[in-house]
Amino acid sequence: xxxxxxxxxxxxxxxxxxxxxxxxxxxxxxxxxxxxxxxxxxxxxxxxxxxxxxxxxxxxxxxxxxxxxxxxxxxxxxxxxxxxxxxxxxxxxxxxxxxxxxxxxxxxxxxxxxxxxxxxxxxxxxxxxxxxxxxxxxxxxxxxxxxxxxxxxxxxxxxxxxxxxxxxxxxxxxxxxxxxxxxxxxxxxxxxxxxxxxxxxxxxxxxxxxxxxxxxxxxxxxxxxxxxxxxxxxxxxxxxxxxxxxxxxxxxxxxxxxxxxxxxxxxxxxxxxxxxxxxxxxxxxxxxxxxxxxxxxxxxxxxxxxxxxxxxxxxxxxxxxxxxxxxxxxxxxxxxxxxxxxxxxxxxxxxxxxxxxxxxxxxx
Amino acid sequence: xxxxxxxxxxxxxxxxxxxxxxxxxxxxxxxxxxxxxxxxxxxxxxxxxxxxxxxxxxxxxxxxxxxxxxxxxxxxxxxxxxxxxxxxxxxxxxxxxxxxxxxxxxxxxxxxxxxxxxxxxxxxxx
Lengths: 364, 126
Known about the structure:
The complex is a heterodimer of chains A (364) and B (126). With 364 residues, chain A is α+β, with helices and mostly antiparallel strands. Chain A has 8 helices and 19 strands.
């Protein structure tokens, strides 16, 4: 039986096309994927991200626990700061990419919807008995509101000064009178916030945001546009670009992999891989002509040597080109390198580029 | 979602409009909605002989790539060059401005094997 988020009726009302996703009935699009991408890039859009998992960890040893199961260093976090991180298996493969918030005497960890059960099992297996662990996913819901006009929409609804919340920082406040944990985070490249609040206020929050955003033509944004927005920034997607078979170093997530931490699950193997030198790396590429790369298309050199495979690919509405990510042999990963993508039997020319694809995002 | 009465349909979501010994074809409203925004279209060249169920071209959309399958056997006698430059016509007007190819029908008996509006509607809503 598929679950519904607190906003399900709003998706149906807005003409959302509902598909099963990670055990939920979720909107893949409303008015159209391209239009929704453009909406977020130009003004503001609202995303139902309630299907993601939200867990709370507390107790004296909570920090040690988080640092043991994640690649980034949570000890560096200040109060109300957020940190992008990953959990690894002992072999360096990725369990999930996660977001860690430091709150008052506790921590929140946000995990991918499709990995929720697996992640929670993994965390509980590694959790010391005296660390308290609560799954808040049903009780606390989550919306992302993203785009350059986000602050202008939210500020009149809030009791706190949102301009004081820096990137990857957060605060407690209210939105439309609803007690909300307000975080300047997101996965679109645009300025924006993620709102965490009691699920029973879901409909009220949705309606208030839509009303307040009217002058900026606010729209609900589906999973299709969400995927494109993250791809245009080269943000990795679990299940496509990262998985249990890829490691954070190859995925270009070395910046969240603190190999100088005393220990964490996967560290030894990752150190070894790093010292031996990586065999492949996740690259960003654009198509030279009119062609769209898709997941699992093969990548080869212009001489016909197969060097890798596409992990994500689509047509970018923002730069109007076919764009993609893929793992290829290290020797070919420099920006400017010419490659070819096997688009259903046609070898289409492409070039390795420096990410992001979209350079004008409002988050700097 | 609209499925005009005067068209014939395929289980692979194409429509055919028969005019004498010729037929124009395109993809259905359901198909365009499933594919989402069409980004570009490629056709086999005019003059190509195609068999029923074989590809006459490709539609690349934001959500997926899809072949356009010939509803009937015959020869491609015209392609809609307007959709090459404005692929969104397929989304906006799948049955009119967004038509794709015209085929000179080789065997008119094949037309009878296509689905009626009612049958197709059941399939699309399944």
